[in-house]
């Protein structure tokens, strides 16, 4: 299941990043770096899980905190830029 989460996350982030690049979001590189760090953390948990470590609670807590923080703060920051870009097309 962790592998599927990583795969889905990578696909989701790629789509989001393409949208941000198309909209000319000025903080795209910082946003990509945030995405990379998240994928790295989940990948590290996956590796530990494959070695027999129970990472369930840690993963759930990280997802809860990260998703709330990311959506509320980082994703909210690009809404105006994307809306303006969509209005021009």
From TrEMBL:
It comes from the Bacteria. Keywords: Iron, Metal-binding, Oxygen transport, Transport. CDD domains: Hemerythrin. It holds the Pfam family Hemerythrin. GO terms for molecular function: metal ion binding; oxygen carrier activity. Residues 2-79 form the Hemerythrin-like domain. Belongs to the hemerythrin family. PANTHER family: BACTERIOHEMERYTHRIN. This is Hemerythrin domain-containing protein.
């Amino acid at each position: 299941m962790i592998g599927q989460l990583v795969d889905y996350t990578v696909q989701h982030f790629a789509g989001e990043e393409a949208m941000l690049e198309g909209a000319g979001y000025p903080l795209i590189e910082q946003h990509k770096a945030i995405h990379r760090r998240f994928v790295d953390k989940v990948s590290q948990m996956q590796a530990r899980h494959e070695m027999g470590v129970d990472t369930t609670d840690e993963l759930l807590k990280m997802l809860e905190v990260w998703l709330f923080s990311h959506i509320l703060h980082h994703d909210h920051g690009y809404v105006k830029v994307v809306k303006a870009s969509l209005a021009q097309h």
